[in-house]
Amino acid sequence: MRLPLLLAVLALPGAALAQDVPCGGDFRDFIEGLREEAVSMGHDPAEVDRFLSGAEIDRKVLQRDRGQGIFQTPFIDFSRKLISQYRLDKGRELANRWDEVFDRIERDYGIARGVLLAFWAFETDYGAYQGDFNTLDALVTLAHDCRRPEIFRPQIFAALELYEHGDFDPDRTTGAWAGEIGMVQMLPRDILESGLDGDGDGHVLLKSSAPDALMSGAKMLSGLGWRPGEPWLQEVVLPEDLDLSLTGLETEMTVGEWEQLGVKGREGRLDDARLPASILLPQGKGGPAFIAYPNFRVYFEWNQSFVYVMTAAYFATRLEGAPVYEAGNPDPGLSGEQMMTLQKALQDRGYDVGGIDGILGAGTRAAVRDMQAKLGLPADGWPTQALLDRL
After folding, report:
1. How far apart are CA 145 and CA 31, in angstroms?
2. Quick one: pLDDT band at residue 363, thresholds 50, 70, 90?
3. pLDDT tens for residues 112-137?
4. CA distances from 88 to 62, 84, 114, 117, 131 (A)
């Protein structure tokens, strides 16, 4: 099962921008508008016509766009579902098979191989399933749809450039429903900006060349702000008396300051005492605990789902040799319907929860933590029936 890369396309508040971006209306008029804009950008009219001639609306893309229920799944369940023994074994096998490529990535970008292997596993099951949606149709469909046209319309023109370079076939190039292509799932504009010819054949082929896909993914992560040679996530043990209101991405202290409060690595020492870091409790005080270093935040530039980011970052540590996390005994979470009821109650009290969608995102977590503190509950950011009852 593929999880959409760059889930920012599902989370960015683009309504204001969308007012200035053409969308909706008669589809043929919409395609003509794309053609005129492409020609005005300097593209050859005949090439533009050939590129757009077969574009169609794909209703299945719209269905997928509105059906993201998997991100309501709690971290423990989600991570156990995605991290299998097969993916661990296959990841280690591929790390050995492409050892030279990963060595280049580590040398040039300072990114550990486990990071890219985790994305490769989750996005396409190491390239086994890269999506069968026609990419141009997917992009055109989402650009025509007026939810986020400002995200997808530029991707059409980027795909046009790839077509002119001979690296995109409007009839045959396929990928994910949201327009991502290749083994690590990159949008056309990201391919233009970060695509690398990792195997030296003169082309950037992210669907068929592992070196191209891995090198391109590394360059993209580097461009998003990855700090070379630094960690990203580590499991920790917390002292009983830690003020839980300090947890969450909203609070950063140095590693040394966390150590002074009694935070310890579950396996081995914490990293450089000068690094800024946050303590994360994905399922509250009863579940696993992690310290998130600066590189963890880069994951949100790749994907906006907290549970996906936590799982991808944790899986990367497993591929680098970390043990299975201590799951603990977290309090039961809320159902999707209960979560929406909670979000509505928080929104009515003036909190910005990022939408009533049933998903425990960053805004909802921050609001929950603040409300827990006000009500005298453990302020761990994990919404429970007890909190809902109090509200």
Report:
1. 13
2. confident
3. 999 999 999 999 999 999 999 999 99
4. 33, 6, 10, 10, 22
Provide the b/e sequence for 35-44 (b: ≥16 CB within 10 Å).
beebeeeebe
Q: Which two tokens stand for residue 228?
A: 């070379």
User: In DSSP terms, which residues pair with 181 in a beta bridge?
Assistant: 186
Q: What DSSP assignment string belongs to 309-339?
A: HHHHHHHHHHHTTPPPP----PPP---HHHH
Query: Is the CA virtual torsion 124, 127, 132, 136 positive or negative?
Result: positive
Q: Structural domains in the chain?
A: 233-319 (1.10.530.10), 336-390 (no CATH)
pLDDT (tens digit, 9 = 90+) per residue, 131-184?
999 999 999 999 999 988 999 999 999 999 999 998 999 999 999 999 999 999
pTM comes to: 0.89
Comparing C-alpha atoms, which of 115, 129, 118 is closest to residue 176? 129
- 192: number of Cβ within 10 Å: 18
